[in-house]
Amino acid sequence: MVTVGILGAGGMGNVHARHYRRMRDVELFFYDPDEGQAETFVQRHQVGAAPSPEDLIARCDLIDLCLPTPLHLRYGLAALAAGKPVLIEKPIANCLEDGVKLVEAADKAGVPLMPGHVIRFFREYSTGNRMVKRGDVGMPAAVRVRRGGGAPKGLNAWFMDHSKSGGILIDLGIHDFDWLRWTLGEVKHLYSRSIGAKTGQGLDYALTTMTFDSGCVAHAEATWMDPGGSRATYEVCGDKGMIQYDSRNTATLRTTVAGKGFVAESPMLGSDDPYYNQLRAFIEAATKHEAPPVTGHDALMALSIAIAARESALAGKVVTPARQF
User: How far is CA 206 from the centre of its chain?
Assistant: First the structure.
């Protein structure tokens, strides 16, 4: 039995708890400083609440850090100093300096630190990555990715304060920046425009154009301003073919009940869910003392691209992401 401690009972904490509860080898505990959020979490998941983050870290084998981004450094360092493997929600931090401190602390403690770049575990994205790498479309030349929907919710609307969330490029765009780097290699330079970058507040929309070392060009769109709801897409064009994906075109199961209309349901088993697979990968790496499939270095490289995009949006110029930390 593995004891997992979730720090943070907000949106991602609830997602992770739902999947941990499906695992027979996991005993789950959590801590959240907000009493209302904590009470709801206990009622929803029927798990034990720790009286403090220090108690949670002490009693659990693994720590799953789902607190708002500004708290990642403090509690990530505390868990790592206690020798506990840590899964940390993306972004690893709001700045490279803090991210480097976390990665170095994990190296010093000799325990896995895995960022929550869950897009790598979506089968559509892992399959696309595999197809590109084995040459199914030939040499990639142009790629388009799109992600977003409405504004994210958070306690006291913390996402809308970009000094806390990092804004759309760091909080949301980082998903696609990570997948693009994983699939296409390193980014040579980029140019980005953002509605909210200069105000640092509220809703945001951003478009980033990246040139990779290979010469491939990618356009990444991220939005918190789509009233049509969540949507993710990608298109990879090479000299031998093209791969396309659109989440709104994904087939679903429909259950129809008299008087209630129909409900669209995922056709996946629980063990096929990307969040479930991400959490299992973390547990396997931690219990076997192996490197996780997504590393701290991956987190820093994705954050570097996101920070460069924000710098570009603020300055209105081409920026080269940092590669040395």
Answer: 18
The DSSP-derived string for 24-91 is TTEEEEEE-S-HHHHHHHHHHH--EEPSSHHHHHHH-SEEEE-S-GGGHHHHHHHHHHTT--EEEESS
238 closest CA partner among 112, 115, 128: 128
3-class state of residue 190 by DSSP: strand
47-to-116, 163, 269 alpha-carbon distances in Å = 22, 33, 23
> Looking at 11-15, 49-53, 248-252, which range is the least confident one?
248-252
Cis, bond preceding 112 (omega within 30 deg of 0): no
Cα–Cα dist 119/124, whole Å: 9
Instruction: Identify the CATH number of the domain defined by range 2-116.
Output: 3.40.50.720
Residue 94: HSE in the Cβ half-sphere, 13 Å Cα cutoff: 16
Quick count: other Cβ atoms within 10 Å of Cβ 296? 24
User: The domain at 119-315 falls in which architecture?
Assistant: 2-Layer Sandwich (3.30)
pTM of this structure = 0.93
* Cα–chain center distance at 226: 20
Q: Are 295 and 192 in contact (CB under 8 A)?
A: no
How far is C-alpha 145 from the chain's CA centre?
Answer: 16
Q: How far is CA 7 from CA 100, 133, 140, 295, 324, in A?
A: 21, 36, 40, 20, 30
- The structure tokens listed for 167 are 């804004």
The amino acid at 168: I
> To 5 degrees, how large is the angle CA 200–CA 72–CA 271?
105
Q: Which two tokens stand for residue 277?
A: 């697979």
What is the spatial distance between Cα 317 and Cα 304, in angstroms, rounded to a whole number?
Answer: 16
For tokens 């491939």, name the residue. 216
Segment 213-253, tens digit of pLDDT: 999 999 999 999 998 889 999 999 999 999 999 998 866 66
pLDDT tens digits, 271-306:
679 999 999 999 999 999 999 999 999 999 999 999
What are the structural domain ranges in the chain? Answer: 2-116, 119-315
